[in-house]
Amino acid sequence: MGEPLLALEGVRKRYTRGDTEQRTVLADVSLTVSAGEIVAVDADRRAGKSTLLRVVAGIEEADEGSIFFAGRALSAEKRHALLGSQVGWVDRRGPGMPWRVLDYVSLPLTMNAGRRALARARERGIAALDRVGAAHCAAQQWDELADYERLLVSLARVYAHRPRLIVADDLFDDLRVRGQVELGDLLSAIVRELGCGVLASVCGGENALIADRVLLMRGGRLLVMSDRSVHGEGNVVSFPARQSSAGERA
C-alpha cells in the first residue's frame, strides 16, 4: 500500500465553555484515506464527526496532533488554502445568498485568473452540472432548488475543480432510500473517474454502504466498524509512523 493521501495522527480537539469547563470532541483520532478510497465516519449527531471533517479541511484547527496531506504535515492555514482546488468541501449549506446556480459552480474557477478564464469556467461549470445530472438547474437561483438538487449542485461545484480529496459533511442525511442509493452511486462513480479519496460523515449505517471503510466515532475516538477495502487494514492506525522535518511542518 502506498503512502495515504490523507493521514491523521493523534488529533485532539476541545471546546471551552465559560472560563474553565472543557468538552473533548476529538480524543486521539488517527485515520487514513487513500486515493480511490471512500472512508465514512459514522456517529450520532453532535458526536464530533463534523468537527473532524472541518479540522481535516482546515476550517478549524486541532489542539494537538498532526495532519498529513500527500505526505506533508500541514497547518490549518495551509490546509484551508487547498480548499476549492485539491480539497473539495461538500455540505448542505450552499452559498448563503441568492446565487444563480451556474455562477455558484463556475465562478470559483476564475479566482486569480484573467477575464478570458470566465468562458472556460462556465463551460466547465456546465459540464460539471451535466455530469451530476443537474444541468437543468443551471439558470435557476439556489433558493429555487429542491433539497436533492442542492446536493447535486454542491457536488458539481466540487467536481468542477477535480479535487484529490472530497470532504463531505452529512451528505446523505434525511434522504429517502432511493436518493441515498443514487447519490452513493454518483459519488462512487466520481471517485473512480477522478481517482480521488473521500472522507464522509454519516449518521446511520445504511448511509455508509458505499464506503470502503466505515469508522465508528464514540467518545471522540474511532473504531473500525467495517473494512471492505482491498487492503483490509482492520485498524485505523495501521499507517506507518511519520517523521517530518521542520521545513515540511507548517
How does this structure look, described?
With 250 residues, this protein is α/β, with parallel strands linked by helices. The chain folds into 2 domains: 1-86 and 163-250, Rossmann fold, CATH 3.40.50; 95-161, no CATH class. Helix content is 27%, strand content 26%. The chain has helices at 49-57, 76-81, 101-106, 117-131, 147-159, 177-194; strands at residues 6-17, 21-33, 38-42, 64-69, 72-73, 87-90, 165-169, 197-202, 213-218, 221-227. Strands 6-7-8-3-9-10 form a 6-stranded mixed β-sheet, sandwiched between helices. The chain has a 4-stranded antiparallel β-sheet with strand order 2-1-4-5, covered by helices on one side. α4 crosses α5. The two termini are 26 Å apart.
